[in-house]
Amino acid sequence: MSPIDLHTHTTASDGLLSPDALIALAKENSVKMLAITDHDTVAGYLSIKNATRTIQLISGVEISTTWSGIGIHIVGLDFDPHHPAIDTLLEKQASARRVRCQSILTVLEKLGMPVSRAELIEQTGHTHIGRPHIARLLFKKGYVSSISQAFKKYLGSGKAGDIKNQWASLSAVVGAITTSGGVAVIAHPDKYKMTRTKLLRFIDEFVEMGGQGIEVISGRQHRDITDKYAKIANDRGLLASLGTDFHQRSPYYPEVGQLPTLPDDVNPVWSIFNRV
Ligand code: AMP
Ligand code: MN
Ligand code: MN
Ligand code: MN
Predict the structure, then answer these.
(1) Neighbours of 48 (CB within 10 A)
(2) Ligand 1 proximal residues by C-beta, below 6 Å
(3) Which of 117, 138, 173, 242 is the most exposed, fewest CB within 10 Å of its CB?
């Protein structure tokens, strides 16, 4: 087991545990280094009150962007969360999220499934709405039989509610993270269903923009996948990261910290952290 988990979510985005509850669980699971990487916000990370001395908490965020028409997530680690560069970018992302939320609600209304922003905010406890919040409400209101049905039919890739063109560009995202003193990392590279040629082109452009890392381990994955991304990381001179992408306690997904260790031959991303 790896005592390091650099990709997790809390109630500040679409996770189901509060930041303090996540820290408590991480401690229970013997995590030694943790990054809270909520979608487009550092509010959860900044709200931590019950810091533990046994865990090194790294600043983190997972930023939505698009490249070549594909929705991509970039994790930022070990940056100054108060730096104007990241602050301005996250402010823009939050506003893009508000606009997108409204567009999704309009689509759903046309499909005969009215959901109001007020209901969403009440359920979520904040205004930083993501598709999982909408999916949960569609389920609660009986419009779909499960969260995964909500994605399959209405919110997932290529569906009517999958509206994704308003995010900051990849270069703006990488730029904001690096200008704020952090490391930009390609999140869950195996999720994008790109051909190998396209993936390598994406990685080369990411590196050109100043990107430095890639998740070699993301959640539960086959050893072959780990080896594939370890090799790509080494070939392209990228630092290796790992994380569960924890959102909630579930029998189907690993818990915070439940990960194997990185392969021996990669260069771990924490080797260049300067805030630990
Ligand atoms: P958003 O940040 O609003 O674009 O929502 C993206 C989030 O939705 C991801 O981080 C996942 O947590 C969640 N998600 C994406 N696809 C699915 C799916 N098929 N089933 C359940 N949750 C999903
Ligand atoms: Mn999520
Ligand atoms: Mn993601
Ligand atoms: Mn994530």
Answers:
(1) 16
(2) 14, 39, 64, 130-132, 147-148, 151, 156, 247
(3) 117
